[in-house]
Amino acid sequence: MPHRTVFFISDGTGITAETFGNAILAQFEIKPRHVRLPFIDSVDKAHQAVRQINHTAEVEGKRPIVFTTLVNMEVLAVIKAQCNGMLLDMFGIFVAPLESELGIKSNHRVGRFSDASKSKEYDNRIEAINFSLAHDDGQSNRDLAGSDVILVGVSRSGKTPTSLYLAMQYGLKASNYPLIPEDFDRRQLPPALVPHRKKIFGLTIDPQRLSQIRNERRPNSAYASLPNCNHEIHEAEAMMRREGIRWLSTTTKSIEEIATTILQEVRPERLVY
């Protein structure tokens, strides 16, 4: 595989540059070295970034690829004029045509997290994260009605990371509730969940993969044994079918794919489409 260094440069956190850049790079069979340069918000820092990029180009003998979401024109001018990398100015590519189409100028605002203390959306996201942590793994039945979505599934099927991703990325109050042997014996949903059936979404997983994950946590335990994992998954899926709960397998899916599917199915009222 061809070796290449990729720089992600931003005058904010760099999350946009890295997310967008990685989405593009995923189309190519390469494993680049990533260098993140956030908070490049002055001409002096721009010169430092240029020196690092140009040194890399000299050492490797290949132009680094440089993704940038810089909005400070002075800083961007230094990068454009002096860096010896392949520069992909993502804001320049999209903002200028939009300014022309809309007939207005961009406010050149730095980062999605600027003025966070004044942002209602940011406050909602923090509240959602706290809610999701408090309602992780069935810790609390209080205010389940306040959930935007409730994830159910056996232990280690991906409920917690998905809940936190929904909270952090979309500001959704995501509860998650484990299905346990007592629920399978009763052949019913946990009573606390019954009134909120419309908000429930189920996660399942391949039993062999579940056994591998559980063995990392509790090696050679009955909890992690393949027969037990087979039994729990069979019972959980049977319950979800009986109860008419929408569900998917997390075995080969990323957190982003899982979350997107959930949002398409549950369509929380809080989320604006």
What does this structure look like?
The protein is an alpha/beta fold. It is 46% helix and 13% strand. The protein is built from ten helices and eight strands. It has helices spanning 15-25, 43-60, 73-82, 90-102, 120-134, 159-170, 181-186, 207-217, 226-243, 255-266; strands spanning 5-9, 33-37, 65-68, 86-89, 149-153, 174-178, 200-204, 247-249. The strands form two sheets. The protein has a four-stranded parallel beta sheet, with helices on both faces. Strands 6-5-7-8 form a four-stranded parallel beta sheet, sandwiched between helices. Strand 1, helix 1 (15-25) and strand 2 (33-37) form a beta-alpha-beta unit. The radius of gyration is 23 Å and the shape is elongated. The mean pLDDT is 89.
Total number of helices = 10
Low-confidence runs of at least 5 consecutive residues: none
In what range is the share of β-strand residues? 5-15%
Alpha carbon gap, first and last residue: 40 Å
User: What oligomeric state is this?
Assistant: single chain
Instruction: Determine Rg (CA atoms, Å).
Output: 23 Å
Decide which structural class fits the backbone.
alpha/beta
Shape: elongated
Count of extended strands: 8
- Biggest pleated-sheet summary: 4 strands, parallel
The level of helicity is 40-55%
Strand line-up in the sheet with most strands: 2-1-3-4
The average pLDDT score comes to 89
- The SSE string, one letter per element, is EHEHEHEHHEHEHEHHEH
